[in-house]
Amino acid sequence: MLLLCLFLLPCMMTGHLVIYIMVTIFVTISYAPPKIPVHYIASGISANSSALASHPLGPFWNLRLEDSALWNQLQHIWDRQNNPILKGNRTGMQRRPKGQSLKEIEDECLSDCLSNKCSVPRVNDFNSMPEQIRAFIKSMHCREYPFLINQPGICQRKNDSSGVGSPTLLIAIKSQVGNFENRQAIRETWGRSGLVRGDFNKKGGLVQTVFLLGRQDSSTGPHPDLSNLLGLENEKYGDILQWDFRDTFFNLTLKDLLLWRWLQQYCPTAAFIFKGDDDVFLRTDALLDYLQKRVEEHKIWRTYTNETVMNLFVGDVISNAMPNREPSMKYYIPESFYKGVYPPYAGGGGMVYSGSLALRLQEVSERVRLFPIDDVYLGMCLNRLGLSPIHHPGFLTFDLPGTDRNNPCAYRSVLLVHKRNPKEMLTLWKQLQNLPAQC
Ligand SMILES: *[C@@H]1O[C@H](CO)[C@@H](O)[C@H](O)[C@H]1NC(C)=O
Ligand SMILES: *[C@@H]1O[C@H](CO)[C@@H](O)[C@H](O)[C@H]1NC(C)=O
Ligand SMILES: *[C@@H]1O[C@H](CO)[C@@H](O)[C@H](O)[C@H]1NC(C)=O
Ligand SMILES: *[C@@H]1O[C@H](CO)[C@@H](O)[C@H](O)[C@H]1NC(C)=O
Ligand SMILES: *[C@@H]1O[C@H](CO)[C@@H](O)[C@H](O)[C@H]1NC(C)=O
């Protein structure tokens, strides 16, 4: 019996092995990689160059290229153009100067950017798309718009008591020309520029607020001409940044891009940036405390690693969101424009990130196609940097539960609430100034 087993065992094992090999061979033979019709050649490389290995016809690193969606297609082109392996040794592997990639690719467009002569990317159902996405597609190659109002010196201005030039926290608020009341309420409450004390930690920091505006006058729609009033407001407060593009929902991403460029040029040493809407309430003092803690942690961390850049990005993080496919909705994104899940992003109303990260976002944004939803675009740029936004439960973009809204004590653990009109901002501000001790 034992002997029989000893003889049978090797036979069975060999049998299994033969079956395995046959299956493997069969699978290998029957598998054909997907074919793409054109042999893509990255710019600047001759197909004959013997110095370079030819790259495969099948896109093995991205098997699921969504070539039926415009954004994915355009992004794929940039990804290949910016891929150091595909690009080869054209420049002796030198790092190219910053900003050149975008310039090279779209030079011919940029000069015609504002005159609307540049060719519109082709997309099949263009004419059946809603007006706002069509307007976006027509101008999505264009990201340079001139200033109408600039504040070149604002980050060096505050130099009195503290002696420090650059702000600890730059508050950048997306506003619209007509929202005078929101801006004023913010200036009088949580967005007051100057030295601000922390909530617990009395150290606080220097706060500087700016408002980000596009153009809204008779040339961009049925708008009353408020430019003189805006000019007066800016004369008094000197905190308006305005660029010459139509201020629409799908153009909001431009405000982020242009803010980053402005930061790079005029305010590169700001420690942190809060970017938000003009209908939120921010507990600036509590945020300063929070940021102070992060800075201290980073200092400790730095002694163990060589990580000198602080990559902080905090907000109300939304993961695995899908594009909205309901054509009547504000956020509608057609399938022929974008396919896929959105990367994790900080949504609605406000988020805070470190100044050094803002400069990195500026750089990487030159390799990411414009996307009409600004929060998602920020998520895409972070994703490219290999970073994720950090979720903080104090960012209440969907507000407090109804019963807590009028209870000042409930705001103790809050950093941001959405949404509050100017009157509510003033009331809440007053209540939070004298919080009862039992809170
Ligand atoms: C490749 O080399 C052949 C023969 O030398 C030449 O005819 C052809 O034009 C070259 N192709 C490219 C893309 O340079
Ligand atoms: C790239 O080109 C430079 C100069 O032509 C050469 O010295 C270098 O070895 C090349 N590098 C690679 C990785 O081929
Ligand atoms: C700010 O203050 C410092 C020290 O008090 C001084 O050295 C510096 O020149 C000032 N900067 C500006 C722009 O006024
Ligand atoms: C964005 O602004 C540009 C420049 O004013 C304009 O041509 C374009 O139509 C705007 N896009 C949207 C989606 O409104
Ligand atoms: C940090 O950088 C220094 C000098 O550049 C190097 O000697 C050291 O090994 C680095 N330490 C770590 C943890 O990478």
TrEMBL record:
<keyword id="KW-1133">Transmembrane helix</keyword>
<keyword id="KW-0735">Signal-anchor</keyword>
<keyword id="KW-0333">Golgi apparatus</keyword>
<keyword id="KW-0808">Transferase</keyword>
<comment type="similarity">
    <text>Belongs to the glycosyltransferase 31 family.</text>
</comment>
<keyword id="KW-0328">Glycosyltransferase</keyword>
<protein>
    <recommendedName>
        <fullName>Hexosyltransferase</fullName>
        <ecNumber>2.4.1.-</ecNumber>
    </recommendedName>
</protein>
<dbReference type="InterPro" id="IPR002659">
    <property type="entry name" value="Glyco_trans_31"/>
</dbReference>
<dbReference type="Pfam" id="PF01762">
    <property type="entry name" value="Galactosyl_T"/>
</dbReference>
<keyword id="KW-0812">Transmembrane</keyword>
<keyword id="KW-0472">Membrane</keyword>
